[in-house]
Amino acid sequence: MASTATFALATALTARTDSPHAAAHQICLQLWLASSLLADALAVAAQTLLARSVAAGNTAASQQIAQRVLRWGVLLGVFLAAALGLSSRVVPTWFTKDAGVLTAISAIYPWVFLTQPINALAFVWDGVLYVAARSNRGPVIAVVKRQIGCLTAQWSAEQTSPLVT
Prior knowledge:
Elements: H1 2-15, H2 19-55, H3 59-86, H4 99-114, H5 116-132, H6 137-160
Helix pairs in contact: 1-6, 2-3, 2-4, 2-5, 3-4, 3-5, 4-6, 5-6
């Protein structure tokens, strides 16, 4: 529910600009979501491994799995940031040839790739906490990371378009 509300708010804020900025937002959002699914896949694998070790009562193995998966999360985030950053002139052209949209993407796209290490770590941490902490911290972290994304989208829209008030 929090994800949907955050994405809806970000889209509503962007829709108050012009068509090129709205299109750029949607393209960047889809790229961000695709990379998020990769990080979430790592989190799902972590949950499976952790559930087995927690159920067996093996605290040492659980800690080792959590540490290893968190390191993999950081590496995944750095890799995604590098891949998206190095391809920043090519990837947007897969979606559009419109000069206005490409100009708007160039202002937003750095946020897509620069947030990847934090994004990947947040998704993996969320997965680890879901099993290992046996607490309600997982959903809280999910809400916080989505709010950060929304605030980033709002700030980016304000910086790139004089139409947002």
